[in-house]
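> forwarded from #structure-qc
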């Protein structure tokens, strides 16, 4: 893309960090011919996270929920340059980003200059510094996590099958523990129990009967963001499905075979063969480095932004969206990241107009013309409205082909639960898929599981 526009004005460089819900939604909507657009992300694909909990047990295939970055950038109106790299350090004064290659056997580090920067690097799983979690637990955030969980499930089953029925090691290997009763933990525990009941029970009935799924939650109930009637429904269903839900139980320590949890005054040791840790988000290193450079960034929860998505302390050149940010009342969800990206698309369109007017003003010598341009500029600046989040509801799969939904229609809220809600959940997620290709693949995966069951190999 030429460095200047036809009128001679410079084309500003927009660097976008990340290829998740925020950044990809922005790239899909933005007129990329307005900027020199550079995307930096260690992941050369978009991942449809809402269906990630379905992948370790094979309800949905991983390939069905990813979309290559190239197919997204290729359909943009302007040229987009992509680096498969990680942003290591952002210098908000010099306006540079240091990036480090993430491509195998291709090491490089370089500094990219930017006029404008969009930070959409997401977050990493939090462990609250609990000893042993990083070393021993699996997380459920990215594709390699889902693959790791699947391998562990299959290995444990095969190992357990070689041990005698009364061997305590067999019991430990078949103890599958999920920590965190938020939607990630609940959806994964539900998928796991489905797999045991619907598929393993046919192929290896003796082992399937011994598998124990446990969900550990520190608070008095699971799924806190849902209405009481819905989390109660989910807890009742889990009890019926024999998922052991341990409430008011906070994990304090983890070693390679056992978690130690506090429940009131009592301490409980829970042996595990598989431990999936889903206790929420923490900022990434690159976000922490940036926070350390700006006095205004004094939150531990994420990058502080204003209601225009501008980063506090670097309002003129950096916007931040999605899970890497913290703004009261906005939760780290795909829905929020997507709406923020839509808002930012409009902002960047306005910013282009502002830059064009500023350039025209700098070239104009006629006082009347200059004054007209200034009033036009003022009008555009005043048009910029703050971001307003429109919450449409929250959905979660809870197993046995049932789902719960807290739907918001205007000011009113509606709660739904059961099998019909599961169909609603399915159609909503199909609708949310990024591409037609994803939609078809996911629908085919569901059909395959319905008719043929899930696969039981690694
Ligand atoms: P992400 O989507 O996480 O994207 C971050 C991007 O930044 C990635 O491409 C990553 O590779 C890249 N990156 C990381 N580090 C760097 C770096 N140093 N430099 C450059 N790039 C970097 N929300 C819902 O609303 N509904 C759901 O049903 C739902 N289900 C979920 C299920 C699971 C299992 C999980 C984990 C989350 C779910 N969420 C859901 C939450 C939702 O996925 C997040 O809120 C959303 O992904 C946030 O978008 P984001 O763009 O901020 O971050
Ligand atoms: P979360 O923050 O929603 O829930 C984490 C849970 O872990 C909390 O209930 C917390 O009390 C519990 N916990 C924390 N420390 C613990 C400990 N030591 N021992 C036992 N329990 C402990 O995290 P999440 O489920 O990973 O979700 C992250 C974000 O992604 C949330 O904003 C969520 O809304 C979003 N998400 C949404 C969906 C959906 O809409 N269906 C699905 C997945 C994730």
């Amino acid at each position: 893309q030429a460095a200047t526009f036809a009128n001679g004005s410079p084309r500003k460089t927009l660097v976008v960090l990340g290829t998740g819900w925020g950044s990809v939604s922005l790239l899909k909507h933005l007129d990329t011919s307005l900027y020199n657009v550079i995307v930096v992300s260690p992941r050369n694909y978009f991942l449809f996270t809402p269906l990630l909990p379905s992948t370790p047990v094979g309800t949905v295939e991983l390939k069905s929920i990813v979309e290559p970055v190239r197919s997204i950038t290729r359909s943009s109106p302007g040229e987009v340059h992509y680096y498969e790299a990680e942003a290591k350090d952002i210098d908000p004064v010099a306006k540079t980003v240091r990036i480090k290659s993430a491509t195998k056997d291709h090491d490089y580090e370089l500094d990219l200059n930017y006029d404008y920067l969009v930070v959409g690097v997401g977050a990493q799983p939090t462990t609250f510094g609990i000893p042993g979690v990083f070393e021993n637990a699996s997380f459920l955030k990215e594709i390699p996590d889902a693959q790791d969980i699947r391998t562990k499930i299959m290995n444990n089953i095969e190992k357990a099958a070689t041990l005698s029925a009364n061997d305590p090691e067999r019991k430990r290997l078949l103890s599958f523990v999920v920590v965190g009763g938020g939607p990630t933990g609940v959806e994964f525990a539900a998928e796991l129990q489905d797999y045991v009941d619907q598929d393993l029970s046919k192929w290896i009935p003796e082992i399937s009967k011994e598998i124990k799924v446990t969900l550990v939650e520190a608070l008095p109930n699971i799924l806190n963001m849902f209405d009481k009637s819905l989390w109660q429904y989910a807890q009742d269903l889990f009890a019926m499905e024999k998922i052991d839900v341990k409430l008011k139980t906070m994990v304090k320590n983890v070693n390679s075979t056992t978690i130690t949890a506090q429940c009131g005054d009592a301490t409980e040791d829970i042996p595990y063969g598989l431990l999936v840790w889903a206790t929420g988000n923490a900022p990434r290193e690159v976000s922490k480095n940036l926070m350390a450079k700006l006095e205004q960034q004094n939150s531990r929860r994420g990058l502080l932004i204003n209601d225009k998505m501008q980063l506090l302390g670097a309002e003129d050149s950096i916007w931040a969206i999605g899970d890497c940010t913290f703004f009261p009342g906005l939760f780290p969800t795909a829905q929020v990241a997507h709406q923020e990206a839509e808002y930012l698309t409009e902002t960047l369109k306005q910013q282009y107009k502002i830059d064009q007017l500023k350039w025209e003003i700098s070239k104009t010598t006629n006082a009347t013309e200059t004054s007209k341009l200034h009033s036009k500029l003022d009008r555009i600046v005043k048009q910029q409205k703050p971001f307003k989040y429109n919450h449409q509801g929250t959905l979660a799969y809870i197993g046995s082909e049932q789902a719960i939904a807290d739907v918001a229609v205007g000011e009113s809220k509606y709660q739904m639960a059961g099998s019909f809600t599961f169909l609603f959940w399915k159609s909503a997620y199909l609708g949310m898929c990024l591409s037609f290709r994803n939609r078809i693949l996911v629908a085919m995966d569901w059909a395959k599981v319905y008719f043929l069951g899930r696969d039981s190999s690694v």
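QC bot note: Residues 254 and 342 are 41 Å apart (CA to CA). The pocket of flavin-adenine dinucleotide (ligand 1) is lined by residues 17-23, 40-43, 49-50, 52-53, 86-87, 120-122, 140-141, 184, 284, 286, 322-324, 332-335, 337 (CB under 6 Å).
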